[in-house]
Amino acid sequence: MSLILVQDSSNNQQGEEAKQRETEMRNSILAQVLDQSARARLSNLALVKPEKANAVENYLIQMARFGKLGGKITESGLIEILEKVSQQTEKKMTVTFNRRRVMDSDDEDDY
C-alpha cells in the first residue's frame, strides 16, 4: 500500500515539474517574440480574460515555431493580433422571445 502512495506522489511531482517546464518554455518564447510593452499588455489581458490570453499566446508560439514572425512584436502589433483573435472567437448572441399564448382571448368576454 505504501509503495502505491510513493508512486502516486512521484507521478504528481513529475507532472508538476512538466507543467513548470512547459510554462517556462512558453514564457521564454514569448519573451523572445514580444517587446516589453506588448508583454505587459498580454499579462494584463491574462488577468482579465485568461482564456483569450492563452489563445493569443498559443497563436504567437505557433507563429514563432513556423518562423512567420519578422522580429519582435510591438504593442500595436499585439493589438492587431488581439483584434483578429476577437473576431474569430466572437460569440454571436441572439435573443428570441417566446410569448405564451393564454387561453383567454380578448374577443370572449364572459363577465
From TrEMBL:
GO CC list: cytosol; nucleus
GO biological process, one term: apoptotic process
Family statement drawn from the similarity comment of this UniProt entry: Belongs to the PDCD5 family.
PANTHER family: PROGRAMMED CELL DEATH PROTEIN 5 (PTHR10840:SF0)
Role, per record: May function in the process of apoptosis.
An MF annotation (GO) of this entry: DNA binding
Region (Disordered): 1-24
Protein name: Programmed cell death protein 5
Pfam families recorded: dsDNA_bind
Keywords assigned: Acetylation, Apoptosis, Phosphoprotein
Keyword check for Cell inner membrane: no
